[in-house]
Design goal:
About 60% of the residues lie in helices and about 0% in strands. Helix 1 packs across helix 7, helix 4 runs antiparallel to helix 5 and helix 5 crosses helix 7. The longest helix is centred in the last third of the chain and has 24 residues. The protein is an all-alpha fold. It is globular. The N and C termini lie far apart (about 35 Å).
């Protein structure tokens, strides 16, 4: 299952009760990890298919994204279950998402994970606006695989906002184009 090795359960919290920030981050991290049971990583068909299916989903909702990936045109013409580089790349992508979800309650680890990811994409000329859109697309993908509660969607929205904040700050530090808040 990856870093988020929990089973999905009904995540109900009393949103009127104020909880400390670190406790709230731990709860949010657990909610994120639970929802990732819809997109597990690992060996075998379902995990590998999850990564390939995400790329197929991504390229279908915005075909312009294919330009960022060598071989994406050929991939879209293939049977999605046929092994491609997107099987391996899909696993790496899902693992990064699992890592972010699992480290959401550890600001230093989360920020380092995001910053490293952005730095690895330095030479790919990714439009800074795409970093802000990514987790919206990922939530839509998760919803295509199963039901997400409003609490889970809110948790992903929190992660996406924080991810984009760190991504844009990293781009700025690297002297690359970035979006202002």
């Amino acid at each position: 299952m990856g870093l988020c090795a929990s089973s999905r359960r009904n995540n109900v919290i009393d949103i009127k009760r104020k909880i400390p920030d670190d406790e709230e981050k731990k709860l949010t991290s657990q909610i994120l990890c639970d929802s990732l049971s819809l997109a597990i990583v690992g060996n075998g068909e379902p995990p590998v298919e999850n990564g390939q299916e995400f790329y197929q989903f991504l390229f279908t909702i915005d075909p312009r994204l294919q330009s960022h990936f060598v071989g994406a045109d050929e991939f879209m013409g293939q049977d999605p279950k046929e092994p491609t580089k997107f099987a391996k790349q899909g696993q790496r992508l899902l693992m990064a998402i699992h890592t972010m979800a699992a480290s959401f309650d550890d600001s230093e680890a989360f920020d380092k994970t995001v910053s490293d990811l952005i730095k690895r994409h330095k030479d790919r000329h990714v439009d800074p606006a795409l970093w802000n859109k990514f987790f919206g697309w990922f939530v839509t993908f998760l919803k295509s695989k199963g039901e997400l509660t409003s609490i889970e969607e809110d948790a992903w929205k929190q992660l996406g906002i924080r991810f984009n904040t760190v991504a844009q700050a990293t781009l700025k530090t690297m002297g690359l184009p970035y979006e202002e808040d």
